[in-house]
Design brief:
single chain; 140 residues; mainly beta; 4-stranded mixed β-sheet; 1 helix; 9 strands; ASH; cytoplasm; Ig-like_fold; CellDiv_DevSignal_Domain; Abnormal spindle-like microcephaly-associated protein ASH domain-containing protein
């Protein structure tokens, strides 16, 4: 009688794509994949002094082979000082687009806001914007 050998025992078990996320690395760019049920990435601005601006890049990916993605920035918390360099853009199949998001804080304190995108008029996607605004240090 033949013995049943599992895929794990044979060394063929493959556990999905693994993406390494290094939360404290300055060079890591958050990625938003324009597919259903994609996880909302975090765009961290760190600490920004009032009266100054800081920019961060959000990479939007279109992983679909044969369909381009027409993307609209549906909602951005502009009243909190956020802006983007493009409100509408097209991402070719299996390509990506770097969206520059700028933040000029309007008041002191921590912030957690959402930026919302619509892809091809149907799929809604979000990214989380995080940061802390500080008053400039007083000179003695």
């Amino acid at each position: 009688m033949a013995e049943a050998v599992t895929l794990g025992q044979r060394g063929l078990l493959n556990i999905g794509p693994v993406k390494r996320v290094h939360a404290n690395k300055e060079n890591d760019v958050p990625v938003l994949s324009l597919i259903q049920f994609s996880k909302a990435p975090y765009v961290a601005f760190g600490t920004v002094k009032l009266g100054t601006s800081k920019s961060a890049v959000l990479q939007l990916e279109n992983p679909i082979e044969d369909v381009k993605a027409e993307v609209i920035v549906e909602k951005i918390p502009s009243s909190k000082g956020f802006s983007v360099d493009h409100n509408t853009f097209t991402i070719q199949p299996e390509s990506s687009f770097s969206l520059k998001i700028s933040w000029t804080p309007t008041e002191e304190g921590g912030i957690r806001e959402l930026i919302t995108f619509i892809a091809n008029g149907i799929l809604k996607h979000q990214a989380v914007l995080l940061g802390r605004a500080e008053a400039p240090k007083k000179k003695k």
